[in-house]
Amino acid sequence: MPVLTDAASGVQVSASLEQQELFPIREVARLTGVNPVTLRAWERRHGLIVPTRTESGHRLYSMTDIERVRSILGWIERGVAVSKIGTILARSAPLQPLAHLIPNDLVQADYAQWQQQVQAAVSAFDEIQLERIYGQIFSTYSQAVVFQDILMPVWKQLLHRQDRFGGSSEWLFFDGFLRDRVLQRLLLNRGTDPRRVIVGALAGQCRELELLVASLFLGVGQAGVRVLNIGQLLDELPLVCERIRPEALVLFSNHLPAADLPRRLNRLAMSLECRLLLAGDASDLAEEELAGSSIGCLGHDGDVMCQRLKQFLAGNLDT
Q: How many contiguous H segments (helices) and E segments (strands) does the chain have?
């Protein structure tokens, strides 16, 4: 089998890296654009990455590690200091309800196997096979785990690989597949009165699928969730809420909050007769600035968002 040699370490690694799911530092640098010096600094100074070590001490990175590197890059691009990213990542770590029964490395390995199957079906543009895998994953895991820990990481990975030939087509295929399935689930969950909670995106702050998945999480156990189209004007939300009369308006954002966001949200809240809540990554980042205001922060983890929404609507959780 052909091998590659890491110029810095002399470690020989199989050319079929993606199948082995272990990557030397030079390959991680190529895939992410982050140089090895920076990767080592993130590990040593900030503890942001913990790669596997060989017996000789060389670093090997899993696909989970690579997605974490991309997540770190995303936060840096949004203006978050590296020293603060560790706290954000720790706070946003997915819940593992069976962690006391199944070692985390086995759970992650199972996630990775499903992700490999999904990626293979997407690469072949095989919707029938993708539908079969999608159903099998749902028969194994909860809705939050399926989207948050298995499918959306693949979606994000494909999103970041659109610069390679065929990458854009693969992402569009998978994005369309997931949007259709999430919309189906949202319709099934709407119930007879899909007006209790309406969910919208702050302009330019997320992609449609991210908004739909967040709405799916928020709709668990609720009388109904209605999703506003991407591009909804913030200034016209009071009119929308006046007509629909929801109990809560949830605004979703995955971007670093603008400096004037708390002021804008507080002004919006004063013009609403329903509760105003913020969800997504921006919720975690703006929580301190919004403390003491009438605006509730739901976070971005699927189970946590749903739980906090229920508590806010029941009046059991204050801002």
A: 15, 10
